[in-house]
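Good morning,

Attaching, inline, the backbone tokens for the sequence recovery test we're adding to the shared suite. The designed sequence is right after.
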């Protein structure tokens, strides 16, 4: 269990404009996406709170409001890091229901081993912006980017290590899967783990894959 060392946060502050309704409450395998995401964090061994939600999700977990509204996931990350009392913080978007808890745990364990301020997955050579493990030391850099009007998470992760004189750690997910360290509970390959539910069609496809 990693709970004494890290906090976990679900990013649920999107406008859900392409979904047509609050995606956090849409159903995957008969359960709201917010419940699926929270259970993934708990299974990975960390506490679970909700950052930046636009509707009331307090029935599921404690909510942390945005201090930089309308700045996308980076605004939610800022709110969560500001509220966190832990050095290490694991972030998972609400719309990745096929993400295996084991990968979340692997990324967090990797961050604890290396001390890298930013730890993400890499798939087919491409860095995936989420899920991500961030050290609290990155908070001033995130504040600066938000104050400048920059809200792209991928660019933020790339810039933070240089400011901290460290290296972004991008873990090759397919290698973890191939060597048996990170099997998927439904037997799905890593290329599907990062597929997000942005539209009703996306969600229907994810439900078919998860069945």
């Amino acid at each position: 269990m990693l709970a004494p060392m890290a906090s976990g946060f679900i990013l649920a502050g999107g406008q859900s404009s392409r979904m047509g309704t609050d995606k956090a409450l849409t159903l995957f395998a008969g359960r709201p996406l917010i419940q699926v995401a929270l259970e993934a964090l708990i299974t990975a061994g960390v506490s679970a709170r909700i950052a930046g939600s636009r509707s009331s999700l307090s029935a599921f977990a404690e909510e942390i409001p945005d201090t930089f509204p309308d700045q996308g996931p980076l605004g939610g990350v800022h709110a969560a890091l500001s509220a966190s009392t832990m050095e290490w913080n694991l972030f998972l978007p609400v719309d990745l229901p096929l993400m295996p808890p084991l990968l979340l745990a692997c990324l967090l364990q990797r961050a604890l081993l290396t001390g890298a301020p930013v730890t993400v997955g890499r798939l087919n050579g491409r860095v995936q912006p989420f899920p991500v493990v961030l050290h609290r030391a990155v908070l001033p850099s995130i504040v600066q980017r938000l104050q400048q009007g920059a809200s792209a998470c991928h660019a933020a992760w790339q810039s933070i290590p240089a400011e901290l004189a460290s290296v972004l750690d991008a873990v090759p997910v397919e290698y973890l899967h191939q060597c048996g360290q990170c099997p998927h509970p439904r037997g799905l390959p890593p290329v599907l783990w990062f597929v997000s539910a942005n539209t009703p069609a996306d969600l229907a496809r994810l439900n078919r894959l998860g069945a």
